[in-house]
Specification:
The protein has 402 residues and is an alpha/beta fold. It has a single domain, classed as Glycosidases (TIM Barrel), CATH 3.20.20.80. The longest helix is centred in the middle third of the chain and has 19 residues. The structure holds (3S,4R)-3-hydroxy-2-oxopiperidin-4-yl beta-D-xylopyranoside.
Length: 402
């Protein structure tokens, strides 16, 4: 007999009927329901063969979360969920400059080391995030870094950090968010401190130094704001592709693109063929694609928790259905483990007007699976069942030894 706790596709079809009922609510029809304690189907089994990592593996993919290293150390339930669901993880903050660099001549590796050890012991792959970004720079940066020492500083940072974990990192986000159309440059490059102090070749330099420091990590360019069908996103995609093509032409070591995927539950123009084409263009220049920071901002959805959870689940599902048929998409990571720790509840600019916390992830504050969990799992199953993926396999490098 089927394990009654398992949530199968058939269950999800029933669930989808509830989904359309809830979506009807969004349009102002259907009965009103109280927001209560949160909506979830009872008894969904998320363990072992029902976990996201198991379903992702059947679809020849990796699944994971961005993790908070402190919670991983102090919260046993959080740690157990990470072990249960993830074949890959990434530090939400612990490998950024401000975490690793207390002073210009100092490194502080305690948290990052602990994460690397945790991942290795549990045979979970680890992404490195990130080596070069215009944010998360330490306070001393603005005062002490100049055009004279910037190049050396960036080079030394990458050599030291990527070198320390060489052979133990699945992929490094070498450069994060280097394109910004609004900065008005013809090449689309963001006017970052690195660009100002080093010049446009800082990107190429960062990738070359990273390859030397860790030859087995997949070197990744990670970007946001390229997902929607808006003109702005289309321009950004074009600028990203142009940059990636130029890097490839110059034999810069570059293996993958990270599409951050901070999604909106109700985007102005939706997600569609422009993004799909971008993934295919990446494949044509030999790049894998990772969905690196997936979450769904629910600020435009009504207060009702059930309605929101269904809206968020449907967004996860339709977004993954758009991208997972592409063979070069090989990993999906959500930006956080549960709604309790999401960055979307940190800043005022991301807050909901009704003052309620956002619910953008797959697990609620009590670490219970939400409808979005099933949405993601079903998307993995759909990729698995479709069998034939678009495109030839990406040049699979052997995974780093654990
Ligand atoms: C965010 C973290 O989630 C927050 O905790 C932190 O305060 C700011 O940075 N794009 C990225 C991530 O590449 O590093 C950001 O993470 C979210 C946007």
């Amino acid at each position: 007999m089927r394990d009654p706790r398992a949530w199968s596709r058939r269950d999800f079809l029933g669930h989808a009927a509830i989904a359309s009922a809830s979506l009807a609510l969004l349009n102002g029809c259907g009965p009103k329901r109280s927001s209560g304690s949160g909506y979830r189907l009872p008894g969904v089994d998320v363990s072992g063969p029902h976990s996201l990592k198991a379903h992702a593996m059947d679809a020849r993919m990796l699944f994971g979360f961005a993790v908070n290293t402190q919670k991983l150390r102090d919260d046993a339930a959080y740690r157990a969920l990470v072990e249960q669901q993830c074949s890959i993880i990434v530090a939400e903050n612990a490998m950024k400059w401000h975490a690793l660099r207390p002073a210009i001549d100092q490194f502080s590796f305690a948290d990052a080391d602990a994460l690397v050890e945790f991942a290795a012991r549990r045979h979970i792959r680890l992404r490195g995030h990130n080596l070069c970004w215009h944010e998360a720079l330490p306070e001393w940066f603005a005062k002490q870094v100049t055009a004279v020492n910037a190049r050396q500083l960036l080079r030394d940072h990458i050599r030291t950090v990527a070198g320390r974990y060489s052979g133990r990192i699945h992929s490094w986000d070498v450069v994060n968010e280097a394109i910004e159309i609004r900065d008005g440059r013809p090449d689309g490059l963001r006017n970052t401190p690195w660009l100002q102090m080093i010049g446009t070749d800082y990107i190429e330099m960062a990738f070359r130094v990273a390859r030397d420091a860790d030859p087995s990590a997949l070197l990744t360019y990670n970007e946001y704001g390229i997902e929607q069908e808006t003109q702005e996103a289309a321009m950004k995609r074009a600028a990203v592709l142009l940059m990636l093509r130029r890097l490839k032409q110059r034999n810069v070591p570059l293996d993958a693109v990270g599409i951050q995927s901070h999604l909106q539950a109700q985007p102005a123009n939706g997600y569609g063929p422009g993004l799909q084409r971008f993934v295919q263009d990446c494949r044509e220049i030999g790049l894998e694609v990772f969905i690196t920071e997936l979450d769904v901002n629910d600020r435009t959805l009504p207060s009702d928790v059930e309605t929101r959870d269904i809206g968020v689940a449907n967004r996860y599902r339709s977004y993954l259905d758009l991208l997972l048929p592409e063979r070069n998409v090989t990993a999906v990571l959500t930006w956080g483990v549960s709604d309790a720790g999401t960055w979307l509840n940190q800043g005022k600019d991301r807050a909901r007007e009704d003052g309620l916390p956002q619910r953008p992830l797959l697990f609620d504050g009590q670490l219970r699976a939400k409808p979005a969990f099933v949405g993601v799992r079903d998307a993995f199953d759909a990729r698995h069942q479709a069998g034939a993926l678009r495109g030839t396999p990406p040049s699979q490098k052997p995974l780093p030894k654990l």
